[in-house]
Amino acid sequence: MSIPFVELKSEPPIRGFLHEPPQPSRNAIVLTHGAGADCQSQLLVEISDALALSGFTVLRFDLPFRVARPHGPPSPGSAIRDRDGLRHAVAVMRDKTKGRMFMGGHSYGGRQASMLASEEPQLVDGLLLLSYPLHPPRKPNELRTGHFPKLATPTFFVHGTRDPFGTTAEMKSALELIPASHALFEVPSAGHEILSKRAVGELPVQIVNCFEAFLKTPPK
Fold this sequence. Notes:
Helices cover 30% and strands 20% of the residues. The chain is α/β, with parallel strands linked by helices. An eight-stranded mixed sheet has the order 1-2-4-3-5-6-7-8, sandwiched between helices. Helix 1 (42-53) packs across helix 6 (203-216) and helix 3 packs across helix 4. The termini are far apart.
């Protein structure tokens, strides 16, 4: 099935793909990529397909830094504009759907989504964070958790047990800082990219099923 390409010449711009569910649930989610990738990464495509099959309308899109440059990581000063891009993507999807709204992404994209949600707790109903980059590899003291105590949005983390950006124990400790409901889905033997050739097809569906179950769980 062909996934429609979306491009809005706005500020900040929106460029990506819209996954329409065969049986809509009225829920929608915007998903974006990590620092070294774009919205066509295998992980985002597979997760978006699984979400659409579960009824979500999915906007899988490029952050503004990637629209500006086809390769390379974001510059230190691009984070604010990238969060503006996430905010704009949410607004675009709110015009298309009337149900609950979610936001997330892989690594850098998920980090920016969580930072935006901590700044604007009413923006979305939940977060899906894939391989949150807890700290740079081999630098466990440089934690990226300063906004965690302000995170009031239910947050579902997906984490590979061999992710160099944080061990499972480090993730569990960091998540204790979050006052909102949260859960950690561990992927055994997975690295930062989460998916392997063997996991394609089954793992994305498992992640989405557990994400949906988490969203139905009453807050503690």
